[in-house]
Amino acid sequence: MNAVVLSRQVQLRNMREEDLPVVMDVERAAYEFPWTFGIFRDCIRFGYICKVLSGNSGLVGHGIMSLGAGECHLLNICIHPDSQGQGYGTELTSRLLDVARSRHAKMALLEVRVSNPVAYHVYSKLGFHEIGIRRAYYPGRKGREDAVILARDL
């Protein structure tokens, strides 16, 4: 399914604190090391760009992005496992980049686990390129895991 067709079936809106119980359900289902309720609450309260993506079955994912000094940093892109592989991750990321462009960001950055080739592929399709490695960036089952730093011009 391509993103053009998908975009007619989903809604992107601002995340609200009352969304957080469902956001946490999606986060826990998708990640072995999920963000905490407090992190999401603080992102909303401190003015980060916090969005939820809803499809026919309800909330399917969420994204958190910081914006400043002409750059956006995609901090959390999460799609419920039951909805993965259907173009939602591409749609969510694309729409967040549109928001960043509308706010005059010139560059986008993100990190992805070295053990997540599916996400790496999605970001590569969207024009991101590897610019470095953050050693021991993410928690892992056996210590810490490296992150690949990706960037693209907007």
Order of helices and strands: HEHHEEEHEHEE
Global mean pLDDT? 94
- Low-confidence segments, given as residue ranges, are 1-5
Largest sheet, order of strands side by side?
A: 1-2-3-4-5-7-6
Q: Report Rg.
A: 15 Å
Query: What is the number of E strands?
Result: 7
Largest sheet: 7 strands, mixed
Q: Give the helix tally.
A: 5
Strand content: 35-45%
Broad shape = globular
> The CATH topology is what?
Aminopeptidase
Instruction: Count up the domains.
Output: 1
Per CATH, the class reads Alpha Beta
Please describe what this structure looks like:
The relative contact order is 0.15. The two termini are 24 Å apart. It contains five helices and seven strands; from the N terminus they run H-E-H-H-E-E-E-H-E-H-E-E. The model is unreliable at 1-5 (pLDDT under 50). The chain has one domain: Gcn5-related N-acetyltransferase (GNAT) (Aminopeptidase). The chain is globular. It has 154 residues and is α+β, with helices and mostly antiparallel strands.
Brief overview, please?
This protein is α+β, with helices and mostly antiparallel strands. The chain has one domain (3-153): 3-Layer(aba) Sandwich (Aminopeptidase).
List keywords for this structure.
single chain, alpha+beta, seven-stranded mixed β-sheet, globular, disordered N terminus
